[in-house]
Amino acid sequence: MRTLFTLLIISLFSLQAAAQNFEIPAEKYPFSKVYDWTGEGLLLMNDDPSHQTNQKFLTFVGDEPRTLWQETFVPKAENPVFLSSSGTRYLYFMDPVELDNGKFTAYQLNNAGNMKTKTCNYQVAMKKLGYDVNDLELVDIQVTDKALVHLFETYDKETKTNVLIGGFMTHHNFLTYAAEIGRWVEEENRVYYAGYEGDNIAFYQNTVRDKKVGIEFWFMTSKGEKNGAEFVEIPPVIAPIAFNEYGPCGATQLKNKQHIARSIVSFQGGKWQLLYDGNGLVLSTLEKKIWTKKSTLTGVPRGKKGYEMGVYRMREGMLVSVDGSGHFLANSMNHKSKSYSFTTAFNPSRALTELGGSNWAFLAKEHWVFMNPADLGKVGQLSLELKAK
After folding, report:
1. pLDDT tens per residue, range 352-371
2. 109, CA 20 to 30 Å: which among 21, 91, 216, 235?
């Protein structure tokens, strides 16, 4: 009898630990926005709906059934742009994303809840490189583990080449650096950002070497130092993919031009991932210089000329957006590849779990946090659910 009672207590404790419903207060104003900080939790924002003040209130929820920390900031713009990446410890708010004579103001937030505001300038760093920052086109902003990276393009008339230039602002001291990342002539050889791991910021381009079709990839550091490039052959491709960047990066706020490439590459969590058209949408990972197929989705809508999509790189795989629907290709057996309907919020964590029903899902370090979308904007307490992974 004692053993049965002990098992019952243990079972009840396990259920309580696995799923906990709790509420957090919306201080002053209802929560108006929610941000998916994949791998950390969720970040809620509330502000004055009458717009008499532009102060923003931030509330973070992670691995515990309570508010872990709160912060405030006062941006110039009414709706500052949120910037993040899969797995990063830092977030940024920008207003606006465009530079003013090389200057920009960054509202930096780390996972400990420390907010810093700094106005930085790329003018001097670009001059040292031989460029006037006002002559460059800003095409993207990416958050990496060690730096906020601005990506610029320009055309070199002397060499008749397109140039990708990086502006690097280190998280810890807000120092700015500039470096040339790569060059290309034909659109099919364009240089793209791939992701990061630690102080390795990855870039690549589709190319041909010794009649072999493949990709060339290399790393830049947070101070703009370049490491040697490496070439790897890729599997046969049915057709190129038309794509643009998707998610909380600078490209989605800028012109975000659509590009066409034989393959799309991601470097997240130390893994090289290759997305391509191979009788279905295929994701492979690089293992000992050989691409190993991990996922194939055949139900992704495909036009007459091939796939057309938005792409978001994740540590767990690749998330693509096609005609308002989401398609996740996993890079391991830990997650399931699937197609699903997108919600109004950008919620990549939703692709990583079947739990939570129709609720928004947010991945913390050791737990899932679930939220009913209908509760956003309501006055009073916000109801959440915490479940162990």
Report:
1. 999 998 899 999 999 999 99
2. 21
